[in-house]
Amino acid sequence: QVQLVESGGGSVQAGGSLRLSCAASGYSFYSKYYMGWFRQAPGKEREGVAAIDSDGDPSYADSIKGRFTISQDNAKNTLYLQMNSLKPEDTAMYYCAADPPWRRKNMGRLLRSSEYMNWGQGTQVTVSS
After folding, report:
1. Which element (helix H / strand E) includes 93?
2. Rounded to a whole number, what is the distance in angstroms from the first to the last CA of the chain?
3. Ramachandran region, residue 32 (left: φ > 0; alpha: ψ -120 to 50; beta: rest)
4. Residue of 76, 115, 113 lying closest to 95 (CA atoms)
5. CB of 52 within 8 A of CB of 46?
6. CA atoms in the 13 A half-sphere facing the CB of 127
7. Ramachandran area for residue 80 (φ above 0: left; ψ -120 to 50: alpha; else beta)
8. In angstroms, rounded to a whole number, what is the distance separating the alpha carbons of residues 40 and 10?
């Protein structure tokens, strides 16, 4: 059974940085799962932030391009999201998601939350001005 556990959230001032981690179990990163980071602010829909396809190629939402970087450590079965130059509008609950490689998807669908079967419990990020 796939389990995803996020960590690394917290409260920072605008312009600061955080690195989120997502520890995965129940499968190996070498299995080339699709992996993604999503966020949801109060009263808003969940939105895709960054994702990696089965070949390891990243995709980013326009709102965070140039500020956030997604990466993975296959040996540690861990997904990361490095967030720099944080803004108050980045405040949200951040979720890690994973989907098996046989549920094929093109780059245009990587950031759709409906494409993912497995979710973590989330980690809160709060950015103050």
Report:
1. strand 92-99
2. 40
3. left
4. 113
5. no
6. 18
7. beta
8. 15
Q: Closest by alpha carbon to 91, among 18, 6, 4, 7?
A: 18
Query: For the ranges 18-22, 28-32, 86-90, 97-101, which has the lowest average pLDDT?
Result: 28-32
Mean pLDDT, the chain, rounded, equals 95
Residues 77, 83, 115, 104, CA torsion sign? negative
Instruction: Look at the block and give the residue holding tokens 């190629």.
Output: 57
What is the residue-wise DSSP string for 4-55? EEEE--EEEETT--EEEEEEEESS-GGG--EEEEEEE-TTS--EEEEEE-TT
**CA separation, residue 99 to residues 24, 76, 110 (Å):** 12, 18, 10
